[in-house]
Write a structure and sequence with these properties.
This protein has eleven helices and 22 strands. By secondary structure, the protein is an alpha+beta fold. The strands form seven sheets. A five-stranded antiparallel β-sheet has the order 12-11-13-14-22. Strands 17-16-18-19-20 form a five-stranded mixed β-sheet, covered by helices on one side. A four-stranded mixed β-sheet has the order 4-10-7-8, with no helix packed on it. A hairpin with a 4-residue loop joins strand 11 and strand 12.
Length: 462
Amino acid sequence: MLGGRPHWGASERKNMILEDMNNFEIEKTCIYKERINLFAKLLDTSSSLISKLASHRDNSAILKNLYNLNSHNGGNFMKNFLCRLSLARIVALISCVALVFCFTGCPDIADAGGNSVGNSGENSGTNNEPSPVSEQTFTVTYADGVDGLDFAVPSDSASYHAGDTVTVKFAGVENRAAYTFAGWSDGTTTYTSGGTSTFTIGAANVVLTAVWTRSSVNGKIGEYGSPYAVGDIVFNDGSATSYSENLTLSQEQKNAAIAVIYYVGTELNNGNDTTTVRTLGVGLVHSDDICWCSEDADAYNLTITTIVVYPMAKGDRNGSDNLEQIAEFDGVNDATGDGAAEKYPAFYFAKNYKNLSNAHVNGTAFAENWFLPSVLELCRVRKVKEMVDAASLKCGGSQFDDNCYWAASHISYGVGFSEGWAACVSFDKSDDYGTDYYCTKGSCDDEKDMFVYQYACAVREF
């Protein structure tokens, strides 16, 4: 017993709670006036409801105190208390049922005599109309939908309320080479200037992402031309086909495939260049059992400071000229000319990539300018390894698997660590050396062994 009130049975408690909930006219969503009326009813019945719940012994420790405190404050305590709770929490307290409900504030409520009762429960006037509810506003943002690149898109500085009509903007979209702008998508609906161009905003911010249609080419081995996108398989006539799990290549396409595009962006530029867009593809033929340099090479006992990469991805990023930088470094006199390929085999595997018959590039526009990637360029391959391996497999090419690959970089760990370690990236993603930015030490062994035999690949700008 609590304050002379009987202890109801389980069935009675259930029926009373359901009856109270029905009286509240709870709906999944509500608009302004419905929300006020509902909350007013909730406040009016709070005292009787809390007394019922307090009789449930499982909740008695908290609810009895609430009931007593409410009684000693003329019934105003629960009104003030409930004003500060979201409706979802109140209903959860009542029924232990999770409801989705949009309650944004506690407005002034008119009492039975027509006087406005504020959140304090005190008479605050004779106005029968509730004070306005401060409603949340929402935004619409436009995104170009292109990874690694920035294209101009419209902006919308307006603030919208739930239920407002938004007119989608189509002016101000920057042209994109080899693509046609096809509209905006919110993930469910695509909005076009000639079709659906408005929508009703809900209670959430909206991001509209550009939809692009890629322009096809005729009379080529592949479907598309340049510029290429990450995931493209490039053929030796300059055309490309996008990789997909269901892709099937003809024998003609397999015989003409030369690379998989793995990176498009500006982050791999040297110095302060943040604008030049680089598109990198990795060749489909890899070398195994190859070393960075031989033990008798001039560079073996040197730290080539111009090709060093430091922790946190600082230093040399672009590996396209690293062989030349080695050749120009003081004390190195054997990186070019006769015998250089035997002393720097990983570098010359990439430089002479066209000589591999199954590379499919000799005699084409893509015969030259292959190079051993820097550690950061190689890390980007590692980042999309699964896609690259799957696309290469479609073409009959090599896979990275979990092997360790040489990079055209030296690594510096700073004071207290050995200098001049040649970079080797492990493609085993369970390897502790692997991260997105910096994923290697001198070799896969714990020694400075640049002559140790690992794998190598060749990359090229497209």
